[in-house]
Structure formats: structure tokens, C-alpha cells
Amino acid sequence: MTAALSASRQEKSVILLEAAPRIGRKILATGNGRCNLANSGPGRYYGGKALAREVLSRCPVEKVLSFFEELGLITVEEEEGRIYPGCGQAAAVLDVLRGDMEKRRIPVVCDSPVIRLEKAGKDWKAVTSQGDFLAHGVVIACGGMAGGKLGHDGSAYRLLSDHGHQLIDPRPALTQMMGEKGAVKGLSGLRLPARLTLCDGNKPVSAAQGEALFTDYGVSGVCAMQLSADAGALLEAGKKPVLYLDFSPMMGLIPRIYDRIRAENPEKNLPLVQAFLKKRAHTLPKDALLRGLAPRLLAEKMKGLSLTDMARMLCAFPVPILGLRGMEYAQVTRGGMDTREFFPDTLQSRRAPGLYAAGEMLDVDGDCGGFNLQFAFASGLIAGAAAANRP
Ligand SMILES: Cc1cc2nc3c(=O)[nH]c(=O)nc-3n(C[C@H](O)[C@H](O)[C@H](O)COP(=O)(O)OP(=O)(O)OC[C@H]3O[C@@H](n4cnc5c(N)ncnc54)[C@H](O)[C@@H]3O)c2cc1C
């Protein structure tokens, strides 16, 4: 949609071909229905980082926001630079995009998956179940495979691989982790702030801090999802990843501890937490040590442990990771079309002039926090204008 609007602003005639019965369905599901559409902080991207950098330097967050402002969308910034529509409704983002498409009389042909793209002289022919469409420039913005029915089944990549483009193996990112049953038993539904460190054996691989959510299958929540792609890579390599959860932030000792320790090793906080519990033990009986400190489910789980083991569980609670919940539950696809095969300033294919790519279709994925939509919007704006101005 941003590609279509940006091309239309170049006074070119534009048509949008959509496989689904309606456009922009995924937007409605984003940010828990609130649509975290951008982030004012430094971009955190994986895969084709160089291309992502170039796209976001040409079309930084201010440009994306002023584009939406011109369409009438009011946005607000929340914690960690996350930007949402002021009214708190994802539908507002879709409404302004659709509204401007209608104003500009951009035809949208729904239920019309593009099956293949054929060269037609200097132009391209999009072959769909509803007939063929001829264009001088084509922006392919079919998204990724994440999100179950909100994504595609992988067939959209062929639109580019048919013309010599390489596909970097698509894998789920930003998804929940499945943990060893015994480790999470009794904790389902528990939601609490924690520092999560993903380890390969004892070696820390990556970490994230925020809210963790225990489920009957494992661990969810923004930070677990953040680390899921790394966990997937370890599993694929035959390793046995372990997620350590440090709950000590909720004791009120943190952030002092983090200022000093940076939590590179999940057990580094152990002596401090141990000392804290020992001090508490002067005034409280052992079975009441965690009362008023840890949520009841967690306290129950630690019943009967020695003070040292209790401290260890509070600052390095281990959950062996057995798998990921997969593409269906993922928010974004890691992998996609190899970004080296596109000009970073226009997003035009180096292999098939006249074809452009934008959004999750490309091998670029970002952290939770609005980075994925921001990249999709920004790359769409760039590719749309470039396709419209193709000589
Ligand atoms: C549950 C969920 C929550 C999310 N929350 C956030 C969030 O809050 N913030 C954030 O930044 N990101 C979020 N994301 C990720 C974000 O939604 C995507 O990265 C982003 O929508 C990608 O945009 P896109 O335009 O590339 O692809 P999409 O939004 O997936 O759009 C691609 C479109 O192409 C159509 N299509 C597919 N194949 C064809 C074909 N062959 N022919 C014609 N049309 C086709 C699809 O039907 C779809 O309408 C979330 C994702 C999910 C699943």
C-alpha cells in the first residue's frame, strides 16, 4: 500500500493486486490490535543489514511518520521508542492507507494472487487468476510466511526466484519457545518482569529484558520472542539451548545490580541475591522467604529448596528449550529474498530490471518494537517511487 501510494504520487497509473479477499489484514493483527507501526530508536535488524541501513537512512522514521501524518494519522510514542496510533487502534492505520488509495482512485484487485511475472519487452506481465496485468515497473511486496493464514505459503518467493534471485532459507522469528515440560510445570499463566539469557550450554548467546510469560508449552512474551530466532539457530545446529530467566529485577535490587553487572552470565547475580535472601532469613522463616517477594506460583515451585538453590532459581531459572512454536505463531520471517541482489537506493532487482521488492519479502527482519512495519513502510515508499520513475 505504501508502494502504491508512493507510485501514485509520481502521477503514474497504479494497480494493486492482492491475493487475499481484503488488503492489509495483517496490520489489524499487529501490536495486539494496536499496531506498533514504527520505532524512534536505532534500527535493530537481521539478515540484509546493509540494505536495511540504506533504506532507513533514505526513509528514516520521521519520513514514515510524516507520510502517515499527511494521511491524517495521529501517532504517539510510548516506552522504548515504540510508536502507535494515538487512538490505540490498528484499524486506524489501515483506514488512512485505504482512504488515500480511494482518494487517489488506485484500483485494488482482491482475490487475485500473482502466479508469475513474465517479461513483456521492457515491461512485465503479472499473471493472475483474474487475468493478466501489464506494467512498466512492478513492486513485489508479498510479505513473508509468518503469521499462519496472514502470511503466504512460500509460493510468492517464486515471483523472484523464477528470475534468478536467491532465497535465503525462511525461518520463524519472534515466536514463542517450547520448553521442557518439567521446567515450566505449574507456572502457566505467570507473567513477570525478567532478564532472559539464551545460552548454548553455559555460553550466553543473546539476552533481552522485559516481561516473560509462562505457558503450558514454554515461554512467551516479547523478550522470549526476541530470542527465538537465536534459539532456532542453536536447535538447527544440533545444540541444546537453555533459556535462563533472571527474576531478580522484581526484587527491587535491580537496576542497581544491572548497572554493575550487565548480566552477561546468568549466575553473576547469585552472590547478591543470596546475600539478600540471607538478610531476609534473619526476620522471616524459611518457608516464608519468598512471600511478598515472588509471585505465588513461583514461590510454590521453589518450596523446599535450600536458600542457595532458591537464590539460583531467582537469578538463573533454567528452561531447556526443545523447539519453537513455528511459522504459524511467528510475527516475522527470518530469511527471504537475498538483499544483495537489489540496488539499495531503489530496491530494483539487479537481475530483472523493472522488478522491485519491499517489506518482509526481503531477507530483513527486525526486533519487536515496530521495526518490521517501519521497514515495510519505508521500503514500500522507496520502491514505489523508484518503480514509477523507471525510465
Ligand atoms: C500477529 C502479528 C503481530 C505483529 N505485530 C507487529 C507490530 O506490532 N509491529 C511491527 O513492526 N511488526 C509487527 N508484525 C510484523 C509485520 O506485520 C510484518 O513484518 C509486516 O506486515 C510486513 O509487511 P509487508 O507489506 O512486507 O507484508 P504483509 O503485511 O504480509 O503484506 C503482504 C500482502 O501481500 C499479499 N500477497 C501474498 N502473496 C501474494 C501474491 N502472490 N499475489 C498478490 N498478493 C500477495 C498478502 O495477502 C498480503 O496482503 C506482526 C506480525 C504478526 C503476524
According to CATH, what is the class of the largest domain? Alpha Beta
The mean pLDDT is: 93
Segments where pLDDT lies below 50 for 5+ residues? 259-263
Q: How many strand segments?
A: 20
Distance between the termini: 22 Å
What is the general shape? elongated
What does this structure look like?
By secondary structure, the chain is of the alpha+beta class. The protein has two domains: 2-173 and 327-388, FAD/NAD(P)-binding domain (3-Layer(bba) Sandwich); 177-324, no CATH class. The chain contains 13 helices and 20 strands. Strands 12-15-14-13-16-17 form a six-stranded antiparallel barrel. Strands 2-5-4 form a three-stranded antiparallel beta sheet. A three-stranded antiparallel beta sheet has the order 7-8-9. α1 runs parallel beside α13 (371-388), α3 crosses α13 and α10 crosses α12. Residues 259-263 have low confidence and may be disordered. Bound molecules: flavin-adenine dinucleotide (FAD). Flavin-adenine dinucleotide binds at residues 17-20, 23, 26, 29-31, 35-36, 113-114, 141-143, 146-147, 150, 152, 156, 331-332, 359-361, 370-373, 376.
Short description:
The protein has 391 residues and is of the alpha+beta class. The protein has helices at 2-8, 25-29, 49-58, 61-71, 90-103, 158-161, 181-184, 222-236, 256-261, 270-281, 296-301, 307-315, 371-388, and strands at 16-17, 38-39, 45-47, 75-77, 82-85, 108-109, 114-120, 123-128, 131-135, 138-140, 167-173, 177-179, 191-200, 203-214, 218-220, 241-246, 317-324, 332-337, 355-357, 364-366.
